[in-house]
Amino acid sequence: MKVCEAAVSNSLHEHWAVPDEVKDGREFILNPPEPELVLDYEIESRNYAKAGKASSDIKLTLKQLGVDPSVLRKIAIACYEAEINVVAHSKGGKMHANIYDDRVLVILEDEGPGIEDVEKAMLPGFSTADELAREMGFGAGLGLPNIKKNCDAMHISSRLGYKTRLNFFVLFDKLINGNTNEQ
Amino acid sequence: MKLKKIVELLEAEVFCPEKYLEKDITCAFGSDLISDILMCTKEPTLLLTGLTNPQVVRLADMIELQGIVFVRGKKPTPELVEMAKESDLPMISTAFTLFKSSGILYNEGLRSCRI
What we know:
The structure holds two protein chains of two kinds. By secondary structure, chain A is α+β, with helices and mostly antiparallel strands. Chain A contains seven helices and six strands. In chain A, strands 1-5-6-4-3-2 form a six-stranded antiparallel beta sheet. In chain A, β5 (153-158) and β6 form a beta hairpin. The longest helix of chain A has 21 residues, at 69-89. Chain A is globular, with a radius of gyration of 16 Å. Chain B has five helices and six strands; from the N terminus they run αββαβαβαβαβ. Chain B has helices at residues 3-9, 34-40, 54-63, 78-86, 98-107; strands spanning 13-14, 27-30, 45-49, 65-70, 91-93, 111-112. In chain B, β4 (65-70), α4 and β5 (91-93) form a beta-alpha-beta unit. The chains are: A alpha+beta, B alpha/beta. The interface between A and B is medium-sized, with 26 and 19 residues.
């Protein structure tokens, strides 16, 4: 039985959150086209003094490009939560923002140690944050749910002992959760 | 409600340029959990919190806070005061608890931010 459990916990876990309205969601995340502009950042493990700088920079760049303030807010929140996740839980990693005409695709890849159960991590309130993170005001267990809520499509894949990869995009002229402007 | 009035009501110490006190505060939210603050605030708001680490100011870059009230006698470090100046963010500190501060401001007509 022990062997079986280990096999389960150590398998690749993934979670997709793509509303039906976002028809190209999966395809776009799996095979992203060539972006107009790419922003790259290194995210350091446990460096809370620096944490959030990449997200601030992404927000500022998109603001300068004229993205609507309500959309900017959603992008900033999703980016910040994702960046904090890498700072608080991983050995460090990279964050990229691929900017297109109609959306921003954000890609985070860390150096491990991986998530044991991605579905559990998606549950509001579930947290494995350490004491340091909690002292800083993190660890509410709302990171991934907050990202899901603020983006138009997301995908996360992880495996215990390996890297975690998170991709999400936010459309510039569409409201979140499938409420299009045309309605 | 002017920030100046909030300073009076909460008997607060001011950690920002005097001119910021003329700022109009439209609504408020109180929490010590960053994800809660991010998830629950749907408009620019005054934040009441006991958190005094740099992430609170970083948060203001993300969601446009109108200002921060540090409660329970928490005070910002000089480093935080500098960061806030760069972001034009008003900061004040009160000895009152989060509950008491919120109650006073609510009674005076300051509404809760849209959540």
